[in-house]
Amino acid sequence: MKKILRIVLITIGVLLVLLITIPILFKTKIETMVKDQVNQNIHASVDWSKFSLSLFRGFPDLSINLHQVSVVGLEPFEGDTLVGLKRFEFRVNPFSAIGKNIEVKSVLLDQPLINGIVLEDGTANWDLVQVEEDEVKYVPSEEWEEPGKMKDEKESLTVSLQRFAIVDGRVSYTDAAMDVEAELSDVDMELRGDFSMEETELELVLNLQGINAKYGGIRYMKDGNLGLDLITAANMVENRYTLKKNEINLNGLVLGAEGEVTVLENGALDMDLQFFSRETSFHTLLSMVPAIYLKDFESLKTSGNLLLEGSIKGIMVDSLLPDAALVLQVTDGYFAYPDLPKDVSDVQIELKVDYRGTDMDATTVVLERFHLLLGGNPFDLTLQVDHPISDMHVAGEAMGMIDFASLQDAVPLEDVTLGGRLETDLRWDTRMSYIEQEKFEQVDLAGTLMIEEVKVEASDILVPVELQKLEMVFNPRIVKLVTMDLKLGTSDLHLDGELSNFIPYVFNDQTVSGTLNVKSRLLDANELMPADTEDSVPEESEVQSDEEIDVAPPDSIAEPGQTKIPENINFNMALDMKRVIYDQIELDNITGVLKVSEGVANMEELSLNVIEGSVTASGVVDTRGEFTEVDVLLDLNEVDIPSSYKTFVTVERLAPMAKYCKGKANVKMQYHSLLDAFFTPLYESINARGRMFTRGLQIYNLNSFVRLSELLKNEKFREMAPDEVDVNFTVRDGRVMVDPFDMEFDDSKITVSGSHGIDLTMDYLLDMNIAKSDLGEGANELMNGLSLLASGAGIKIPESDYVKVKASITGTFNKPKVRTDLSGNLKSSGETVKAVVEEKVMEEVEKVEEQVRDEASEKADKIISDAEAEAEHLIEEARKAGDELVKEADLQGKKLIEEAGSNPLKQIAAKRGAEELKRQAEKQSANLVREAVITGNTNDTT
Length: 942
Hints:
Blueprint: H1 2-41, E1 44-47, E2 50-54, E3 62-73, E4 81-92, E5 101-110, E6 113-118, E7 136-138, E8 155-175, E9 180-192, E10 199-215, E11 218-235, E12 240-250, E13 253-263, E14 269-277, H2 282-286, H3 290-293, E15 301-316, E16 323-336, E17 344-355, E18 364-374, E19 377-386, E20 393-403, H4 404-410, E21 416-431, H5 432-436, E22 444-458, E23 465-474, E24 478-488, E25 491-500, H6 502-508, E26 512-520, E27 523-524, H7 525-528, E28 569-582, E29 585-597, E30 600-610, E31 613-622, E32 628-640, H8 641-647, H9 649-654, E33 661-675, E34 687-700, H10 703-712, E35 719-723, E36 726-732, E37 735-745, E38 748-757, E39 762-771, H11 777-792, E40 802-811, E41 816-821, H12 823-855, H13 860-900, H14 904-941
Parallel strand pairs: 5-8, 6-8, 26-28, 27-28
Antiparallel strand pairs: 1-3, 2-3, 3-4, 4-5, 4-6, 7-8, 8-9, 9-10, 10-11, 11-12, 12-13, 13-14, 14-15, 15-16, 16-17, 17-18, 18-19, 19-20, 20-21, 21-22, 22-23, 23-24, 24-25, 25-26, 28-29, 29-30, 30-31, 31-32, 32-33, 33-34, 34-35, 34-36, 36-37, 37-38, 38-39, 39-40, 40-41
């Protein structure tokens, strides 16, 4: 007995050792295999935080676990997480891990987060796996090599699946191509069966909670539930699956199904299924209405009978769909909430849908009857649609009244307040071809639709909506919009006019045309747009200084336009809007004609008042591209300059000097640019040419003029009032180029030319003719120095009332660099000195010659002798005078340099002046001597 017990204990011990050691022995091999399979077959970045093996978790199978798994897409989904998992487990036959074929028996996804994305071009982020062969091959990595095994030997990964499970999953799906959004907040699924057998029984249990779905911006399901409990006989050889036991539960609607599905060799599905409602209570159908299902559904009092059945039969592959049929009947339906005063009764529905996947033109939809009493008010609807492809035929009637207050009293609407009523008496019977070919005599369309005093308030609506009145009269040719009076918060809107081609627009997405009169006393767009809480309050370090202007953001980060004009509308709209508010912009008295066609708005003499002036605009706004394109002729009259800077970001970026100006501006220009989602220009796309004329212009504390005033020591440049300025400008590639224009202030004149960019860089030249009365201290010092030099040489400079100053302004508006140039004045003074010296020498020579001629007859010899002596004396005097002129120029130049002090501008000007005076003095000295020699020789010859 002891021996037997010992054997048992030893056996158990060996098993425990094996259970512990086997996972350790094969962990490296299996993890390497998994990594290689992932890298070879998945086009994504896959990672996990921990890899573990255990024989205890799934004994007798080997449990392989990857913890915190993430699958992140590559281009064009780089950075987007496709799948995230708390744990990914698959169990394998432990003995197969020793051999070449590793057999997978079950897969578990624990708390998966799946994010499906489809781009507008149809590219899906789950197209990651690239498998070329039926069997997944595994080639071991060089990091691990089984002893005694040749490198060219291959291992394979086979699937003998018996269980696939998802626990507590979440799924989101966004399809930009189809405009679909869907979300599942809680997914649990278990699929069991032996896929390795030729014939097996598959059992599927699926529970989906929190189903939300939108298509085309319309919500079709909110917080719905779906449950499946299916048992299917599967023929794995023929890929045929036959339903044996099943139950489908959608919200409260319980359906049954029977039939089979066969997977063909080309991947197509051959379907032959029938479905039917297991319950005949009207109560179950109401669960499909979100507003009813989500609020006290179990307490709902109902009566009435339900018949729901249908079929799906045919091939489904690529764009080919099988035929489908649906029959829905409700008789004597009734429901009421015990806490609400009104009910819905006498519900009668007969609906038949026959969809033909093989011949879609044979599809028909027939709503033979839809009738109900809502709070005692009857409403009836019939509809028939056939030949939807070749020539759609639409017929039907709508008659009755819906009191929205009664609806709220009969159905609990969470966070929504309704009021008002809808009345209609409308019939229609036509084919699309009748309208397209304008055979209006064959169109039967007549009736009215009126909606009055409708009020809607809800938590997800920014402002209360009040449709005071909407009245439409229908006939075969046009739909007459008698009136539409709408209030949105404090805003109001009134429309009236006529629409043509209305039915093809509604049923066949064709273009609707019409003329509309649009009137409003106030339209506050700020009320109607969600508040942007991001960056609404800047951080303390981000608050802009009054002395600085921000550089325009780069166009590369601009968000494409979201507001699109529908391309299937063609309206001529006459505008009469008293006031429109958008952001900080307030527009008054908007009048004109706006023609909208094929996604383009054409403005014809659109006029409005803004910032104390008026604007007239003509041109086009094209919303068809990625960014909205604007090409308009603008005529602005008497616009207030400070207000325009504060109101329009375009003025702030293209004319930053407007921040330091007062007065009125008149601007006429041809403007072209692209706009982003917030209707802000892409500055580098701006191309414009125009003219600006100002009245009462004042310029104060402009950084570049402040710097100029500091250099010239004249406060007049800080605040100037040039009043009228006439400027021609061009904007190209984000840079404003200004043609030369004049500014006058006091008795002085400034000619300005140059350019600046949206990056705030400047390159301007100021050519100034400044009256001496307007000279600053610095300029006066320099001019006084020049005058002193001339007077030291015995020369008087002619008086002038003006001084020429050239200023070059570069750098940026925040940090301008200013350089002045007075060389124009220095050159003029040098030429004046030269002329005066030459004139003085000639006067002396002529005086001597005249004396010689008067005394020639009496004392010729003496005169000649004296003339020779005088010539020598004249030469000597000329030499002395020249030396004295050079000496005096040198002294005055040094004095001027000393007086310049540390002022770099004055030093440069003083040095230039000193060098010029000395050069001119040396030149004049040589000329004096030469002229004296010539004069002496002439006298001697005479």
